[in-house]
Design a protein that fits this description.
CATH superfamily of the largest domain: FAD/NAD(P)-binding domain
CATH class of the largest domain: Alpha Beta
CATH architecture of the largest domain: 3-Layer(bba) Sandwich
CATH topology of the largest domain: FAD/NAD(P)-binding domain
Number of domains: 3
Bound molecules: flavin-adenine dinucleotide
Radius of gyration: 23 Å
Strand content: 15-25%
């Protein structure tokens, strides 16, 4: 008889909207064993090919059923340095779980019957962290003395650093901000990814010998040629896509209109929600509109409604999206959580203009209703404005979360680094090497906005190429 999926425990929404504590509680041992026992150990496990870093899912789930948790941890860590992070933020419903045999073919995302692979990964990641398990460096004499510089400490940079350090390469990560983690820290709020989890997994890299230098913008403080001159044999670029896109509509520059990046950074990185305990303030409105349908929009809306609750403001936060919920790129779980927390969704609505009060603060949004037309080049049906459907609504704080583009600080300071029309770094997809010899790249700076695990997948590929590059150029580097 088919066993029923184990539901993951979550904090009750009336309580959780008043703080930034973690929402999803994770499996107990008993629940993990029960969920793992649903896996039928397919001969040809499709879930593995659904994972961008190729975790041996079948094996680690089998190890859980035998209570060999140390073994499961080791299996996961062979391929993934950050199981507790990925177990929390991976859009598994589009990746490993979608490929699970329990998801019917052709479904746009995993059915509820698919094995809770990411929850099991999280269970094991947290177990390993509690127990202080580590994956030792398998230092290889071939790489002794080799030094690699990594630009950016997001998932791509950290993953590449970890892969190289495990082989005995000396890695230095240069991060422009004062804290590490990239979007994991400044974008994803702590109620989805607690900071102690993030810190623990980053600390495990430091234990492998990775050196991290924050407050160092490569392209300003140092150029790539400075890094080579300092003796780094190769460089990995993982600068991410940190530049927000805007709507380009009238009134978008009014006071109290934020890009999602600024809004989330103020709170997540600079503690604006605890002002004046922290120095950075944030205005919070009575009628908040978040424009967009991705993870960033869900995070911004969920942060906004928490701030309204915490400041005793009657909550009124609405997500405005041009298409329908089916086309929303956000994770299903985040959409469900946002709804449970009282966020309203105004779908098939396109913003046209923001209107101000006499002091220049946004007060009103004018928008039009849409219907879906023919599919565009992404395959999603295009929103078409319905003539004469324009309407106005109260809006005293708006957050624009419609996408992010390449961070260009380094690329504009390095003209010999080839980029495409979006500003993304061009690479040889076989080797992840850029137009500059010895410089490799991965993550959102290459593919545009993606996911944490996709960034890590690219970084792992680049790390393999960097290791070959080091061997190939060893004689040359030794002479430097
Ligand atoms: C709000 C938000 C929520 C998201 N939620 C999810 C989710 O739930 N699940 C998921 O899988 N994906 C999610 N994503 C996408 C995911 O976070 C990204 O795909 C991933 O972080 C990309 O990793 P990266 O290392 O390429 O870049 P980033 O995480 O952007 O890291 C790049 C780092 O490089 C630094 N940097 C940039 N330029 C320089 C320079 N010149 N010198 C030094 N340092 C520099 C930046 O400060 C930054 O720390 C989300 C994205 C956002 C914005």
């Amino acid at each position: 008889m088919k066993k029923e999926p184990v539901n993951i425990k979550e904090r009750e929404h009336a309580a959780r909207v008043k703080d930034f504590e973690e929402v999803v509680q994770g499996f107990s041992e008993e629940e993990a064993l029960q969920e793992a026992s649903r896996c039928i150990q397919c001969k040809d496990p499709k879930c593995v090919s659904g994972c961008p870093v190729g975790i041996d899912i079948k094996t680690f789930i089998g190890q859980i059923t035998r209570k060999d948790y140390d073994g499961a941890y080791s299996t996961i860590r062979q391929k993934n340095n950050f199981p507790s992070i990925c177990g929390r933020v991976c859009p598994a419903e589009y990746q490993c779980r979608k490929a699970c045999v329990f998801t019917k073919k052709g479904e746009p995302f995993a059915s509820g019957q698919a094995i809770g692979i990411h929850f099991l990964e999280r269970f094991i990641g947290d177990y390993g962290a509690r127990k202080g398990l580590r994956v030792e460096s398998s230092g290889d004499a071939k790489y002794a003395g080799a030094r690699v510089a990594v630009v950016g400490s997001g998932p791509a940079g950290l993953c590449c650093a970890g892969e190289l350090a495990r082989r005995g390469v000396r890695v230095t990560v240069f991060e422009g901000l004062h804290k590490t983690g990239g979007v994991l820290r400044y974008g994803i709020p702590p109620f989805r990814l607690p900071r102690n989890i993030l810190d623990l997994e980053i600390d495990s890299l430091k234990e492998l010998g990775v050196e991290i230098r924050t407050n160092t913008i490569i392209g300003k403080v140092k150029l790539l040629e400075d890094l080579f001159a300092e003796g780094f044999s190769a460089i990995f670029l993982g600068m991410g896509a940190g530049i927000p896109s805007f709507l380009g509509i009238p009134g978008e520059n009014l006071c109290n209109i934020y890009s999602a990046n600024e809004f989330l950074t103020r709170v997540n990185l600079m503690g604006a929600h605890t002002f004046p305990a922290h120095h950075t303030p944030i205005n919070i409105g009575r009628h908040i509109v978040v424009v967009g349908g991705g993870n960033t929009a869900m995070d911004a809306a969920r942060v906004a409604i928490r701030l309204q609750h915490m400041r005793g403001i009657e909550p009124d936060t609405t997500v405005l999206y041009r298409r329908t919920e089916v086309e929303m790129p956000a994770r299903r779980l985040e959409i469900e959580h946002a709804k449970e927390e009282g966020i309203r969704f105004a779908l098939l609505v396109k913003p046209e203009e923001f209107l101000a009060d006499e002091k220049g603060f946004v007060r009103t949004i004018r928008a039009s209703r849409c219907e879906l037309g023919e599919p565009d080049k992404t395959g999603r049906r295009r929103p078409v404005v319905i003539e004469g459907s324009s309407f106005e609504a109260d809006c005293d704080l708006a957050v624009i979360a419609i996408g992010l583009g390449a961070n260009t600080i380094l690329t504009s300071a390095t003209p010999q680094l080839a980029t495409d029309k979006y500003g993304d770094v061009i690479i040889n997809p076989e080797t992840m090497e850029t137009s500059i010899q010895g410089v490799f790249a991965g993550g959102d700076i290459v593919g545009g906005e993606g996911t944490v695990i996709e960034a890590m997948g690219m970084a792992k590929k680049a790390a393999r190429a960097i290791l070959s590059y080091i061997i190939h150029n060893k004689g040359e580097n030794d002479e430097k």
